[in-house]
Hints:
By secondary structure, the protein is α/β, with parallel strands linked by helices. The protein has helices at 2-24, 26-29, 64-75, 96-103, 117-128, 147-150, 173-183, 201-213, and strands at 34-36, 39-44, 47-52, 86-90, 107-112, 137-140, 160-164, 191-197, 214-222, 227-234. It has a single domain (2-234), classed as Rossmann fold, CATH 3.40.50. One of its GO terms (molecular function) is methyltransferase activity.
Amino acid sequence: xxxxxxxxxxxxxxxxxxxxxxxxxxxxxxxxxxxxxxxxxxxxxxxxxxxxxxxxxxxxxxxxxxxxxxxxxxxxxxxxxxxxxxxxxxxxxxxxxxxxxxxxxxxxxxxxxxxxxxxxxxxxxxxxxxxxxxxxxxxxxxxxxxxxxxxxxxxxxxxxxxxxxxxxxxxxxxxxxxxxxxxxxxxxxxxxxxxxxxxxxxxxxxxxxxxxxxxxxxxxxxxxxxxxxxxxxxxx
Length: 236
């Protein structure tokens, strides 16, 4: 009982830390961003992007990884050219990263849990209409479940898979890795771009498993908040 109580205390502490990050991150990441309750606005890719948030769910908050990877894509277009590319985002949340990819000319499919989709769809529609070459799509995806049925490898092929702050204190890290591997199989030609802040020991353990499945390159490391952005392709 003592050990279980201690684990629960750590879990509550971790959750509070992450919620605090979501509210405080803009002081670190982007001075040109302004914040009001339930709404954030960004100036990326030449457009003002307005995001509706909710404090009801982790998936309805913008995490620093999404901001960092969005800015990386905007500032490194020659290194990562998304124009006319097929892009899938897993764990899209509020949709900021998918919106930026759409504004940069990609054909985007944004995925997340079913309960996240209404707000995700709202944000994508609000920020992409009459701005993008392709209308971004929204689909439900539960990590590790019905992947081949819902996203068959023969027809669902992507140039890039984007993932931002998908590794944190949850119990689905194995399913997440399986999902990444499903979309980035050997010889698929798919490149995975993953941005994540290192928070817990589980993050480091996941990274070890990740590097066992993928050829991994560290694209950039931001000292503020231990943010890292990786490029990866499946091992043969």
